[in-house]
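Teaching note: in complex prediction, the entire set of molecules is handled at once rather than each chain in isolation. The prompt given to students was simply: 'Predict the structure of this complex.' The entities are:
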Amino acid sequence: MFFPISGAHISPIYLAIVGFVIGILGGFFGVGGSFIAGPALRAVGLDWNFAVGTDLAHIVGKSVVAAKRHRALGNVDLKLGLIMAFGTIGGAEVGAQLIQMLKRAGNVNLVVSIVSIAVYLSISTFMIWESRKTLAQARLPSGTVKGAKAKHDPSAFKHVTSAIQRLKIAPMITLPASGVTISLWVIVLVAFVGGLFSGFLGGGAGYIRMPSMVYVLGIPTHLAVGTDLFEIIISASYGTFTHAIKGNVDILIALVMHTGAAIGAQIGAISTQYFTGPKIRLAFVPLPLIGAAIVIYTLMTGHKL
Amino acid sequence: MEFAFSHDCRRPSGGREAKPLEQMKKETIKTLRAFLIELAIYAVLVVAYFFLVLHFLGEWLHQLETRHRYTYGGVAILLIIGQAVVLENVTTLLLRLLRGRSE
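The expected output is the structure of the full assembly:
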């Protein structure tokens, strides 16, 4: 099928299958899935700028479906999502400026690659340690995990999270849906850092934001997944618009990808009911590792996936 | 989309509520069958969508992207959100029809 905006010939079946896989991951983990979508679009000859912008547009659609499903399951904290969207957008702009600075200095690829490998490996290592320790300590329900039960989400890192929640820096925000009261500035900081990595490393940076929401803000894992998806709708829409006006979005490709993602995202979202928080976090571990593997491959071969 | 297993096929949460294994198996088979039929109908609809809607939209969007970038940015977001809502409703309706027929 010919896509006139990007001038690419791509099989729609391929796009729908890629969308389906990313949809399942997004619905289950609350991530955008750029680390798969980018290379998958590049593999069929789409230019890098179109791959980035088109992926963002596709993420918007997938997140709408998954967030709607998570909302029906009681897994979205709208208040938290709206606050975080502002921080994310601000962070993304600063991240993009950092990239421009590094471009002028001439060492953007090396710096971004090393930072991303360090971040990915740190997240995976920490999450393996925490989720395994939590699973070993806690007696968790074996059946369906929903709504109120999900709020009792054990974590071996809980003492640090509680210390952060005790920081009384006005204004304090109460999040009834998540059962948390925390300083507004902590929420904005977490969102800003997520946005910074999004602008700096590309993609939605859900692999940083979702764990941050659990470990720093103390949001139960199921709510973190759902709220992250809701927040991604806003920040990815902003990203789509800014990329579209720069000529980096082929919306026709995004629409075709989304036909697969619409089904995958719902399967992923519904599947979260069958797993406890620590199990979702443990299953999350390979995602940043895949990201790190892609960056290492790019560094070693010089081919950008 | 309302997958049947989201309502009907939960794993037992305690001994008192545990369903007999045979009934669970039947429900799982029913759910999978409904899901596969839904997937087949959905695939036909999607293929029709590729060749009809995108064929007509393609040239117009291409022109818009070339001449009016800001409008294109807005239209792109509206299209992807609109499609997300429509597809979600279509799949929900499909499964409701399928489940209604099989029950």
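Point out the following to students. The radius of gyration of chain B is 20 Å. Residues 21-102 of chain B form one domain.
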